[in-house]
Amino acid sequence: MTNGDNNRLNDADKSSEETRERDEAKHEEAELDEALDETFPASDPVSPSRIDGPNN
Question: Which residues of 7-18 are buried (b: 16+ CB within 10 A; e: fewer)?
């Protein structure tokens, strides 16, 4: 095997590693989005105004 062959293999390994890391990041982002969707009602901020009127 020549030096050029080794470089091509190393480049392929790097590309494969970068693709795997990108896929993992996308998966993690999707998991976080799903978790946020599951807790949506609890993530709504509390309303600072009264809903029963000012005189009650």
Answer: eeeeeeeeeeee
- Find the angle CA(23)-CA(20)-CA(35) to the nearest 5 degrees: 30
Quote the pTM value: 0.50
CA angle in degrees (0–180, nearest 5) for 25-31-33: 105
* Rounded-to-integer distance, Cα 49 and Cα 12, Å: 59
What is the pLDDT, as a whole number, of residue 2? 58
- In angstroms, how far is the first alpha carbon of the chain from the final one? 86
Residue 2 CA from chain centroid, whole number: 41
Contacts of 50 (CB under 8 A, 6+ apart): 56
